[in-house]
Design a protein that fits this description.
Shape: globular
CATH class: Alpha Beta
Structural class: alpha/beta
Order of helices and strands: HEEEHEHEHEEHEH
CATH superfamily: Alpha/Beta hydrolase fold, catalytic domain
Number of strands: 8
Strand order of the largest sheet: 1-2-4-3-5-6-7-8
CATH topology: Rossmann fold
Number of domains: 1
Radius of gyration: 16 Å
Number of helices: 6
Length: about 220
């Protein structure tokens, strides 16, 4: 099912200003949830949030993804969460970040037809941060948020420099990725981000979700 500009315009939002829909990626359907802010305008930003690794339980309902969406809603952005290929009702299979990047580009292209005056922001957690970073140059997003980017697991150094305002949130006790590698990678950027370092936080930010929200609200 291809969601046309008219179809997106006809989405039915519930009492929480949220609508579930299906968009189109390169291999088929992409399960998507869109939430509109209470103070919606024609220029309300669109933020597309990418979730953790699909082979290790990552979905768009992940609690970090959820708190990011909630935070951006309070920043008056339209939030868009989606399942990577092979997750939930999304078609296709895991593609090591390559196909996932192409799907993210397709989603943004469709959203821009729907809301042509809206700035586009990108956000990603863990594997989703890798996909977000790969996609950011072609999408030309205006701002970028990376949470626990797995720089020790993927070829981040092959990605071109990020030339827009961006924020990185990283836990100092990350048990999945090398937190020091994130710190080093950030420091080596020509246009370094705002680094929010949570020394006691692990990879999944257990008990620190409100800290993520506060940090984002204060630094975005």
């Amino acid at each position: 099912m291809i969601i046309s500009q008219m179809s997106l315009s006809q989405l039915e939002f519930d009492q929480h200003n949220t609508a579930s829909t299906v968009m189109q990626g390169l291999t088929g359907d992409i399960e998507t949830v869109i939430t509109q802010p209470h103070n919606l305008t024609e220029s309300s930003p669109l933020v597309v949030i990418s979730h953790p690794h699909p082979l290790y339980g990552g979905t768009m309902t992940n609690k970090v993804v959820h708190i990011l969406a909630k935070s951006f809603s309070e920043l008056d952005a339209i939030t868009v969460r989606y399942n990577f290929r092979g997750v939930g009702k999304s078609a296709g299979e895991y593609d090591h970040g390559i196909g996932e990047t192409e799907d993210l580009q397709a989603i943004v292209a469709e959203l821009r037809q729907w809301r042509p005056q809206a700035p586009v922001w990108l956000a990603g957690f863990s594997f989703g941060a890798y996909v977000t970073t790969r996609a950011q140059e072609k999408i030309k997003a205006e701002k970028l948020l990376l949470v626990a980017p797995p720089v020790s697991m993927y070829a981040f150094d092959e990605i071109k420099e990020i030339n827009v305002p961006w924020v990185v949130i990283q836990g100092g006790q990350d048990e999945v990725i090398d937190a020091e590698a994130v710190k080093n990678w950030v420091s080596e950027r020509a246009n370094p981000p705002t680094l929010i370092w949570m020394e006691e936080a692990g990879h999944f930010f257990h008990g620190r979700l409100n800290d993520i929200k506060h940090a984002l609200m204060q630094n975005w």
